[in-house]
Amino acid sequence: MSFESHIAWRYLFSRKRVNAINIVSGVSAAAVAVVTAAMICVLSVMNGFGSVIEQMFSRFDPQLEVVATQGKTLSLDDPKIAALYEDPDVAIVSEVLEQTALIRYKDKQTPARLMGVDTLFARATEIDSIITDGAFVLTDEGGFPRSVLGRGLAATIGVNAHFVEPIYIYAPKRTGRVNLMRPDKSFLREHTFISGTFAVNQVQYDDQVMIVALPLVRRLYDYDSLTVTSLHLRLCEGANVDKVKKRLREAVGADYQVLDRYEQQEDFFHILGVEKWLTALLLVFILLIASFNVISSLTMLIIDKREAIRTLSSLGATPQQIRRVFLYEGWLISILGAVSGIVLGVGICLLQQHYGLIKLGSGEDYVLSSYPVVVEWTDIVLVAAVVLVLGFVAAYIPSRRVKSE
User: Fold this and answer.
1) Mean pLDDT of 353-381
2) Which helix (H) or strand (E) covers residue 172, if one does?
3) Other C-beta atoms within 10 Å of 153: how many?
């Protein structure tokens, strides 16, 4: 321990009497600790929400999705696409054809995102785990077409699993001209019977998606058997998603995109990340205000230690050494607050993680009963760095005004 840090340590921890300076120093450290703990808790809660939402999406989204870079569809007879089926780390390739359609049940109608999927779709995703009513069946034993709807979409048109009346699907003819005299002739119609509903707890799926068999969508939109809008890939057990994604991107070239789950919902996770760091930025401003306590505490200490400063100067201490004493003193206050805040914040997060002390609510309207929490070490390091940098600046400002005489 250097001469300067030793004296700073004694000023902070070895005072023989309690006075206003001690109280202000304690308040300064406490303020830094509270804000630090708040930053840890807020970032951890945002991580928790992100983790929960990622788990929701992962039950419906594939591990990797292949889509065309230009245009909406891709052709299965492309040699680059054939390479996907031959990759040793790809266990399942599911074909998907998506379009927008109008669905009608009795007197209720609404637009829907129509997903035509093949028989491997249930194995490429975890759709069976989010079925809330009925079962995931797209063709029954009699050969009749079945469909699985998002829970919100099913509620909109007023259907439940195993309803005996059909749902009609209308789509504009993709080829040919529109007959202005008989516009109804410009639409093709198919029908299906509902077999189940699912819930991802995300509006873009639950309120919009209707899953049907792939041949039905091809008939409705007059697509051949080699046309799809995307391929859903499930990898072999233990395969590294990032490595496989990189290899497949090199194989398919610039004409196609290979997207992982984060990239499939890139806009959503980008917004979530922006919210997280904007919230953290607001807390940094609060921390900046709390740092003024350190400045005031250090200024009062400098005034109180005028005699000690003269004594140190008489004993041969240089002005730079004396300034460093008070610089270290102010920084020790911030370090004490940072360490205490990190311990407090992590402790609160662990309690919330294991016991769910702070509740969100109860009932069907709540996906979670308590706030989710995920503590990441990168957040702790970042918060500690911000606190220490601001603490150093707050200590540097008054320490520069120290005079040896």
Assistant:
1) 79
2) strand 167-172
3) 22
Question: pLDDT tens digits, residue range 52-91?
Answer: 888 888 889 999 999 999 888 999 989 899 888 889 999 9
- Judge whether 368 and 360 are in contact, CB under 8 Å: yes
Spatial distance between the Cα atoms of 26 and 12, rounded to a whole number of angstroms: 10
Query: What whole-number distance in Å separates Cα of residue 29 and Cα of residue 292?
Result: 11
Percent of the chain as helix, strand, coil, to the nearest 5: 55, 20, 25
In the chain, domain spans: 3-57+268-399, 64-263
Q: How does residue 211 score in pLDDT terms, banded at 50, 70 and 90? A: very high
Q: Which letter does DSSP use for residue 377 in this model?
A: H
Neighbouring C-beta atoms of residue 162, cutoff 10 Å: 12
The tokens 């063709």 sit on which residue?
139
Beta strands in 31-166 (DSSP E): 64-68, 74-75, 90-105, 108-117, 131-134, 146-150
Distance CA 103, CA 97 (A): 17
Is it the case that residue 16 has pLDDT exceeding 80?
no
Read off the tokens for 213: 């068999």
What pTM, to 2 d.p., does this model score?
Answer: 0.77
> If we measure between CA atoms, which residue out of 405, 207, 378, 395 comes closest to residue 313?
405
Over its C-alpha atoms, the chain yields an Rg (Å, rounded) of 32
Contact, 353 vs 373, CB < 8 A?
yes
Please state the length of the chain: 405
Residue 405's pLDDT is 44
Helix (H, G, I), strand (E, B) or coil at 197: strand
What pLDDT, in 10s, does the model give residues 301-352? Answer: 777 667 776 777 777 777 777 777 777 777 888 888 889 999 999 999 999 9
* 17 φ/ψ angles, rounded to the nearest 5 degrees: -135, 155
